[in-house]
Predict the structure.
Amino acid sequence: MDISKILSKELNIDKKRIDSAIRLLDEGSTVAFIARYRKEETKSLKDTEIREIEKGLLRLRNFEKRKEEIIQSLRNQEKLNDELKDKIEDSKTITELEDIYAPFKKKRKTRADRAKELGLNELIDKIFTKAKQEQDAIEFAKDYLKEGIDSTEDAIKMSLDILAEDIANNIDVKNIIRRDGFIRARIEAEKKEDDKALYENYYNFSEKIKNIKPFQILALNRAEKNDNLSVKFAFTDTYNKTLIKNLYEAKNPYLEGLLSDTIDDSYKRLLLPSITTEIRNKLIEEAEDESIKIFSKNLKPYILQRPIKDKNIIGLDPGFRTGCKVAVIDKNGKYLDQAVIYPVKPKEEVRKSINTLKKLIEKYKVSLIALGNATASRETEKVVNELLKEVNGVSYAIVNEAGASVYSASKLGEEEFPELDVTIRGAVSMARRLQDPMAELVKIDPKHIGVGQYQHDINQKKLDDELEKVVEDSVNEVGVNMTNASYKLLSYVSGLNLNLAKRIEKAFKNGELKERRDLKNIKGLGEKTYKMAAGFLRFPDSPNFLDNTAVHPESYKIAEKIKDIDLNDVNLENLSKELKVGVLTLKDIIEELKKPGRDPRDELPEVITKGEVLSIDDLKIGDELTGTVRNITEFGSFVDIGVGIDGLVHISNMSDKFIKDPNDIVKNSDIIKVRVIEIDKKRERIGLSMKNIKE
């Protein structure tokens, strides 16, 4: 199998580039390192492209491994012959491969196995080659009466179990039902118990399998699991059985009857359950992959939101009965102070709360307030608006607090702030999420930060693995400033693991790590790891200014040679030949020298939003509002319009033109204008549109 050739066709990437990527991956290079520092070899493959190559490489190598396992199993069973081996080696899909192996696969004893043990495989051969009528079969069966076979009728019936299993193992038969499944068959659902009408859209549901959407599969799975709906697959049974019967020859009416009955039995007892499970598993796998893909698309821009630098910030974690938790941090994220105020019901100490916040603002020169968006957020926001009328130079932003409670109660939260109550840690997290979203959000399991779809209903290991890669790619795209790096953030850096990250954080805090070359003194961090990691770590206070850039230490000599020339007037081709370095690498070095210490997120717009509507009750059809995209699904995008409930812009209401993917129109964290087109207070649902918005 030529893996790179197959991947080249699948991914539409030149085979030579894929060969280079595979070689680098096999040598132990990380995706981030290859994407950033080996552009010459891969011709600038992006991290996402390298991830797809890595994923495809693993899949195809596992496929090859499975072939080898099956060949060895058949060899051990003494069933392997040249024809069978050729079929296995020529198989193109895992389904085709497993179909070939199915008759030889070790499984629990079947009715056919018991019949074979009693020698009835000879009887079924006699019946279908020699019997002209029922009496002939009965006469043949008399020779097989023994312990375990009580009558000729039993002997004939048990022998037909062998034929039923042979039919069920017939690849052509399986493909008839599979083809029906993906052309004509339907998925149907009916209501069972659904008092809250959560799945009202799926009552009396019927849709062709080929047309069903991935999110519908996940919704049906959840509803079935919770006993809200019953779900079944409906095939065109009569048509399928007719096609199956055409694959077999029956010489007379008696044998035709036996064959028809056996096909019915095999179809209902063996084939339908097996193929239904197979198709459903395929649909679930595709739905999970799509859900993970959507989650990943949402996660990366969310993590890579623009940080707000050089500002002291107050974090507010709102609450009713327990009050609003307040935490102050400095411009580097260091915790300074805390308080608890009661600006809303039941105590509603508005004046006292405003005075407390004013004192903290004045004492610590706070210029920004980060307000969590959950319980009591809108009521607290009203008080914040009153506060801003009494202070100068202070603004505020609503912060998505999904997962903050997870961080607050986590081991990491306790390690960072052992002296603080968990609720105050949540307020610190609010402030830090605004100050540096990436540095704070990496501390939380990605699936808890509220940007996914059905994330709790899909394969958790697969989800975790994919989201970890998204976080890793995001962190390495930006690089890590050592000044305020937690070990959790460092653990995502190319080449590092959690233990090394902890040692690095400790060494930096102890003053033992001041520049990149000091990394080599970290226990367990060898030359290879240094090569993978060094370029992604920034040391702002290093005596070598290159340590605060993305220039890799392997390119320092080149950077030193050109740092004093006019970088805006450079002939890249000529200079690359002179310095004996690739054009792409040289171009990256020059960009870094032009803007040392640059943060790619600074190129994104800095947006401070302020909600003006307090609840769904304040909305009217036709209202036009500004909102923040919080989540994107395959059927539309959810937008925070400041009422505590995210509204849905269905894909059909995103553009006047037809679109297949909402990501073509918006991305997570975008600020957009929308119009209210539907309000369902009972189900707390808000319909929005992006069409015909007034400028």
